[in-house]
């Protein structure tokens, strides 16, 4: 019995996504911390001082290199769980769509990919939001800040005591808005993969025209995954980034004292910081998400290839 015979496709999707989440988090956690610090800063962009200033402040005031790994535990738990659940739901939804079409290997449309990834994103956001609340609070403050959570379990206990169950779901609404990011990204990713496959097949057919004319099936390589994941992430990121700022603002320790809700947060950001306020942290976010996307999708695709 081969590995492919012994493992279901849903199990393969879950393990590949779980592995990708762990690897990408371990590699890029410091950039995630920097992005979060910039997102929750309420000063005007001109007063921020830039990413280098924030990096210096963290290194000098919070304990050097180790300070850049504060909140690593909830970040690993959140990313690995999120990617595992996401790919599981995404694969199941695509399989269901194929069965409903009555063919074993039909070509799904852009709308199909958008809906499948959107549903997977909704389920994942609801199930993992409590982890992201703790992660955001730990990343947005130094360990020596009064009231800061000492660990993941401490954060769980303090939120439950002080805010109850609703405290674990702060920022859920903008997170649900952010589902559109994943939906757009995966729609673009799947269609770009199909385009790359067709382009390569057409090129190979032309090259083999003198011979038998047969076109061998072509597996996409790492460069293809690198290119398609980059383009799809940039596209989705440029469209949907403001929701990440809103989510981070609403998940901070004192959010319930500063903002009355999503609408009030949007109004305050616009009044105090202008349009640029909705894109705070975009620079380090781009530096973070592209390497994170490369690592996540390369690990995911290669892990899945090994398992099947």
TrEMBL record:
PROSITE patterns: SOLCAR (PS50920). GO terms for cellular component: mitochondrial inner membrane. It comes from the Eukaryota. Its main location: mitochondrion. It holds the Pfam family Mito_carr. It is a multi-pass membrane protein. It is found in: Mitochondrion inner membrane. Keywords: Membrane, Mitochondrion, Mitochondrion inner membrane, Repeat, Transmembrane, Transmembrane helix, Transport. Solcar repeats lie at residues 8-96, 108-195, 224-306. GO terms for molecular function: nucleotide transmembrane transporter activity. Belongs to the mitochondrial carrier (TC 2.A.29) family. This is Mitochondrial thiamine pyrophosphate carrier 1.
